[in-house]
Every structure is written in structure tokens, then in C-alpha cells.
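Hi P.,

Sorry for the delay on this. The queue was packed all week, but I finally got your sequence through. Input first:
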Amino acid sequence: MIAYSGIRMLIKAADTKRNALVICVGLASGLAVTFEPRLLQHFPHELSNFLHSGITTGTIVTVLLHQFLPKSSKREEQEAHEESRAMVKQEIHELQQQEENQEISQTELSAKGNN
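Then the structure:
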């Protein structure tokens, strides 16, 4: 459910360089402490225990980056939204073409089967 909710939020967010950086660094930090717990060995024991969970570390890093990195310009966000819409339209068009091709293939198979 957490992953699903996150994916839904990502779909709605503008695909800007800033947002990509925030997401990628957050995921990387969470995965880093999960796969290599020794990264935290020089931290105080209480902090190390707190950051031991990849979900906790990733969330904290993501929230901090989101708060402190400069926001994307309105123009960049608008371009990202337009690009996203264009990609969705293209994908819909490709899916419609695939469906039409499948229908044609099925019709041809039915015609050959009847002969």
C-alpha cells in the first residue's frame, strides 16, 4: 500500500529535475542503509538505531530535500506537465493501434478458419 500510494503521488507530480533528484536520493539513501547497515556505525547509537530502517532514512532524506532544495520554476513545471500529457496521449494512441491490429488479426484468423 505504501508503494502504491507513492506511485500515485509520483504520477500526479511534475516530472522536473528537482523532483527526480529528491525521489532518487531518498530511495538511494533508504536502500543504502538497508543493504549496507555499517554505513551508520559512526553515528551515535540512538541515531543509528533510528536510521537503521530504510523507510525511515529514505523518508527523512526525502522530506528534508523537498523542504530545502529550491523549488522548480513555474515554466519548468508547466513544461513537465505538458510533456507528461503528450506521453500519455502517445501511449493511448499506441494502445489503440495495438487493439486495432489484434482485431484485424483475429478477423483474418476467423476468415481462414472458415475456409
